[in-house]
Design a protein that fits this description.
The chain is mainly alpha-helical. The chain has nine helices and two strands, in the order H-H-H-H-E-H-H-H-H-H-E.
């Protein structure tokens, strides 16, 4: 069965092995089947290289240059609501993760309490962002 695609989807598929991670990410968002993407890349769906490509395409990258973090509970909560991990917050604050963890402990801050209060969802805690 031949699938009809938009012009942009078809252009991305036509790139073949020159397809970028952004192209793969776009195709996945447009619900193009993994099998079609693999065929366009001339790869097997089950190959480790293809699986790694798809995994890398799905990782979300965050530009941390315009985000600031002040050591307040509100600042921490805003960062967590934005889906940032402790490692992301530590990088913004230019400290190591252990310092953030110690600060949280000293302030009595627990993410599970925010979830119980409805201030954070479990999905926000599970998001992993790549820097």
């Amino acid at each position: 069965m031949v699938m009809l695609h938009t012009k942009r989807v078809q252009l991305a598929l036509d790139k073949g092995q020159d397809m970028t991670l952004e192209d793969i990410r776009y195709l996945i968002r447009r619900e193009v089947s993994i099998k079609e993407i693999a065929e366009a890349l001339n790869m097997s769906v089950n190959s480790r290289v293809f699986k790694r490509l798809v995994n890398n395409a799905l990782k979300v990258k965050v530009d941390l240059s315009n985000i600031s973090f002040n050591f307040t509970e509100e600042g921490y909560l805003k960062c967590r609501q934005a889906g940032l991990s402790l490692a992301d917050i530590a990088k913004i604050a230019q400290v190591n993760v252990k310092k953030i963890e110690n600060w949280k402990y000293s302030q009595g801050i627990r993410d599970s309490d925010y979830v119980k209060k409805g201030l954070l969802s479990c999905d926000q805690l599970r998001k992993s962002r790549v820097i």
